[in-house]
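Lecture notes, unit on protein representations.

Consider one protein chain, 410 amino acids long.
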Amino acid sequence: MSAAVAIALHDGYFSAGTGAGRSNHALISTVASVLAPEVELVLLPVLLHPDSPEYDHTTCQAMKGRLAAARVIGLDNGTGGIRRFGGLAAFRHLDHHAASMINPLIRRHELGLLIAIDQPFAGLGPLLDAPTGWQLLYLPRSAAAHHSDTSAATWEHDGLAGWAAKGASFGAISAHMRTVLMNTGVPAGQILDVPGGLTPEDDIPLALAPAIPAPAEDKGFLLAMGRAQPYKGFEDLLGAISLLTGHYQLPHLLLAAVNEGAPTPYQHHLRRRITTLRLQATLWTRFDPGLPGLLHHPKLRAVIVPSRTEPLGRIPLEAFAAGAAPVVATTAGGLAETVIDGVTGFSAPPADARALAGAIHRALTATPEQVERLRAAGAAKAAARDYTTCIAGLLGRLAPWAAAAKAENP
């Protein structure tokens, strides 16, 4: 009986420039490591051209070497291989091309599992053939609501209804995302908990981190990093730092609000704000895969995650695993499940610069004993979110026929 596991993704094969991409990288690597040799692994990544600023040669070559036995089918999203995400038009184009590639697989293999990851594939479900002998999983890492994308909201709602009508399961990466799915009309009985977490490969050593400015290293520094998007709350962070400046001697702020291309209008706006407010801050605009290595830096005083909305919140988990403390975060979305005020870090409501300033002040004035308790609680939280175990368990639940038999102990 022929069988296949197919995984459709937008980031994590030709690139890994987002937290979602790093999670996707871990997911497909885990699936490949536990798959029975007779089961075909088919990867369907959004195709990026080597000339795209989002294409990452190192990541792509590593994935090709690790997954040499997999069949790779690049998907066209209508951007000419330049962008992996895009807007609604790119999503529609992508889903039709993905269906034209996946439906023959469904017809060819008697058993199968399809995992379609993230919002670009929200509209794929209605386009799929009736999946007799196949299990379907849609695993969103964000939704239209997180991107303030009202144009995609109706399309996404209809797409999720189409997935549900095909009997698909839906993966919830956090309790927050479970609520988002249910509010979009997904039946609770079709939602599986697939909590986001880390693998050992996610811990980036300090040796791979970019060099930081000498003043920051001498005086200690605060670190905030993420995609250069308004929903990440970086303006709120600058407002909080401005409120504290003059009342408290602050460490230098390293703000890595990044993308993979030329600086964007939003990044120029952040730079102007830093200048106007006369903040002791350095803005990084270019993505560097070594940035998480700074979580190991001995001069790091606090990690700040000021998001206004956040489906999961991967950076606190990375900080916990690296032993960085304290962590300051808003209570937006999944962040409230990891950064628990006074337990694993300090928190504030989203989009509230004054409350965020208070949380930063508490972090910087915490005693060494408090910081050590936060560090220990954070490490335990990160250890409990082992992503390899999570994905192996998911495969065993949805497609027990796909996993390789374990050798029996003599």
